[in-house]
Amino acid sequence: MRGLGYNGRMPKPYDATLNALLSVRPEDWAAHFGRIAGIPPGPAETLDTDLATTVQSDRVFRIAGASPALLHLELESDARLGTPRELLRYNTLLDLQYDLPVETVLVLLRPKADTSDRTGVYERIGPSGATVCRFRYRVVRVWELSVAQWLACGPGLAPLALLTEEATTDLESAVARVRDTVRETAPNPDVAETVFASSFILCGLRHNMDLANEIFRSLHMIMEDSSTYQGVVTIGRVLERREMVLWLGTKRFGAPPENVSTVLKSITDLNQLQRLSDFALTATGWDDLLRGV
Length: 293
Hints:
Number of domains: 3
Number of strands: 9
Strand order of the largest sheet: 1-4-5-6-9
Strand content: 15-25%
Order of helices and strands: HHEEEEEHEEEEHHHHHHHHH
Structural class: alpha/beta
Distance between the termini: 28 Å
């Protein structure tokens, strides 16, 4: 799922929804994937993932357990080669910035994302044929777990149950189980609504959205007129439009100056971001583009 942070590629359509889901219950993500990474449990803190002007990882947690460490999460929904090398780069930059052990977990959201080089090991071979670098990371294939396993991870991860192989055979049952579990475990109605909205949008990764819409309506879950649903969609569009401005600008002008990310993060108006992305096609450089803000 690259695109939660800029990395020079076209943003993907589900990145913003996953970002919202990571933000609503970060403790669920840190606890579950921290266990997978072998990090002792402890209080988790979300860190700023801007490691450099054009380098950003999906989510990083500092877990302050018996042996403090960083948990680096990357989520992918599409197929492309080269991810392991990027993971090594992020891992190394995090190590240098925070001086803590870093464990990396690559989360593949659907079978389409399971490329040949996403094996859990990345090697660099020197001119002599000897290995000069060997980097290990964990790979989690969301669809391989059961609905029950994801529901046991807390409301923040409950929507991942809808991406499992089990859910593809009976989506209505899976959605009903997500609804019941989230209603029982969400700390407040706002969290529940956000999880439901994210669940509906993420269905598009593996399911026919007409069917998903029918099921969500029949189960009286999130509807298009819900303020939470509209909020998730709006936030998603804003984040993706920011990514588009960065992508178009970098294609035309090269890596953006340090102030560009700050300026774009201050813009929440979708129409203004749309105008900027249009202007990126004719602007003469980053300074010229920012004059359109």
